[in-house]
Amino acid sequence: MPYATTSDRRGTRGTGFFGTLALQIRVIVALTLRETRMTFGTSHAGYFWAIVQPLISISFLVFLFYLIGRQAPYGTSLALFFATAILSLELYNKMSVSLMRAFTSNKALLTYPMIKRTDTLFARAFLICCTFIVINMIFYTGLITLGLAPLPHRPEEIILAFLATLALGLGIGSINAILYQKFQAWQHIEKLFARPLFFLSGVFYIPSSLPPEAVAVIRWNPILHIVEWVRTGYYANYDSQVLDKFYVLSFAATLVVAGLFWERITRKV
Amino acid sequence: MIILDSVTKSYRVKDVEKRILDDVSFEFPAGQNIAIMGHNGAGKSTLMRMVAGIELPTAGIIRRDEKVSWPLGFASGFNGLMTGTENVRFVARIYGEDSDQVLDHVKAFAELGKSIDLPIETYSSGMKARLAFGLSLAIDFDCYLIDEITAVGDRRFKERSSAALNDKIKNARVLMISHAEKTIRDYCQMGVLLYGAQLYYYDSVNALIKDYRRFC
């Protein structure tokens, strides 16, 4: 039995490597602009709220710790300690939740032959990536300017950790999208996994200082490694007993491959 | 050139398997305006979606080397929360067209006035049809896929759209689904009948309509 496919030598899908690449870029750019419009609305207030959300989480934690008179678990700045965790956690959550709905809320788009389901995933991921680059820059610049944080020790490590978070979010997000399209109840089950992450990712403690029995359990959580990765990048002497970059990267790569593979074998359109 | 090569299409609804095409090989003759007829639920629209490339066959290969439009019909790819202008620009972008130019064309054809800058969800179905049809005319396709679109809209829109379509098919062609025999005769020179998961080819519209009346 011949396998199912359609081919296009001239027309909507582009020809050759560069034709296909140009088309792919065109589609992703158009979809991203559309997503921007849908996410933030026409006013600039939309962008403002995207930045305010992590700001509130961090301020709340700082306020709480200040209230009970606790010092930062590491370094001198509570705000910096929380920011190094919350920004990655929020990025991951955003990817996971927003990509979950990419297939179901973009059905009408599949009217146009050059738009594939995966494009809607990539466009959303790209927009979230850009948004969080801006958020990260505003935050760290703000903290440094206010004297609440030193300059990052190894910025390249923070960037790598950011990319690892994106990959992880893309992998989980595509799997979520497929599951959510099959069973709407998945959105509730996903929350059961996402909720505890706040407590299991070292947001308000140093994982290495926990008892070994606890570390043995929470080190399965890839977000914990990402938080540790950001901190070893930011602080000069942050010594993580937990961080395993190979674990995060292989975890993320496995999810991305599994998600895209699953998408392909369940593809009908 | 549009070729179906051993194409099978079936899908499951609950436990019932529906087979629309069963190992069909067929070449839509180049440059010809072709009618697609068949009874309700035979799978004409699905066939058209496969020709457009927005639905995969269950097995087999579909080849095309002409620029084929999306199926023009009741369902549109518009986003209800975005304005007419935004939707038009989006489609122009994905097709790599100049979005200002496309927008001018659409404005002239659709005659929506200031409504073009309102969200699509505020449009009537006739306004949506005008916008969708105007948009497809503004992009130069080699082959227009038309799924009963001439059935929507008021008299003025019907007249204008048939004039525009007649103008287009001087340089392009149509594959058209319609139950209206007059529409078929107006635009098509030949046709296919989708019946019992097979495609039957007729080189004259009269023969097609005769069998359509007999079997469907």
Which key phrases capture this entry?
heterodimer; A: 269 residues; mainly alpha; 10 helices; 1% strand; globular; B: 216 residues; alpha/beta; Rossmann fold; 2 domains; 5-stranded mixed sheet; 7 helices; 8 strands
Structural class, from secondary structure content of chain B? alpha/beta
Largest interface: A-B, 35 and 39 residues
Query: What is the H/E order of chain A?
Result: EHHHHHHHHHH
Overall 3D shape of chain B:
globular
The number of E-state strands of chain A comes to: 1
> How many separate domains of chain A?
1
The low-pLDDT segments of chain A are none
Averaged pLDDT of chain B, please?
A: 89
Helix content of chain A: 55-70%
Instruction: Show unreliable segments of chain B.
Output: none
**Shape call of chain A:** globular
What integer value in Å does the Rg of chain A equal?
20 Å
Q: How far is it from the N-terminal to the C-terminal residue of chain B, by CA?
A: 28 Å
Give me the strand/helix succession of chain B: EEEHEHHHEHEHEEH
What is the CATH T-level topology of the largest domain in chain B? Answer: Rossmann fold
What characterizes the major β-sheet of chain A? none
Largest sheet of chain B: 5 strands, mixed
Q: Kindly give the count of domains of chain B.
A: 2
The Rg value of chain B, from CA coordinates, equals: 18 Å
How would you describe what is shown here?
The complex is a heterodimer of chains A (269) and B (216). Chain A has one domain (16-266). Chain A is built from ten helices and one strand; from the N terminus they run E-H-H-H-H-H-H-H-H-H-H. The longest helix of chain A is centred in the middle third of the chain and has 29 residues, at 117-145. The relative contact order of chain A is 0.12. Chain A starts with a strand and ends with a helix. Chain A has 269 residues and is an all-alpha fold. In chain A, helix 3 (78-100) packs antiparallel against helix 4, helix 4 (117-145) packs antiparallel against helix 5 and helix 5 (155-182) runs parallel beside helix 10. By secondary structure, chain B is α/β, with parallel strands linked by helices. Chain B folds into two domains: 1-69 and 141-216, Rossmann fold (3-Layer(aba) Sandwich), CATH 3.40.50; 78-140, no CATH class. Chain B is 36% helix and 26% strand. Chain B has seven helices and eight strands. Chain B has helices spanning 44-52, 84-94, 99-110, 125-138, 155-168, 181-187, 205-215, and strands at 2-13, 16-28, 34-37, 59-64, 143-147, 173-177, 190-195, 198-202. In chain B, the strands form two sheets. Chain B has a five-stranded mixed β-sheet with strand order 5-6-3-7-8, sandwiched between helices. Chain B is globular and about 50 Å long. Chain B starts with a strand and ends with a helix. The chains are: A mainly alpha (269), B alpha/beta (216). The A-B interface holds A 1-13, 22-23, 26-27, 29-31, 33-34, 37-38, 108-115, 267-269 and B 5-6, 8, 11, 50, 52-68, 70-71, 75-79, 81-82, 86, 90-91, 93-96, 142. Strand 1 of chain A pairs parallel with strand 4 (59-64) of chain B, so a sheet runs across the interface.
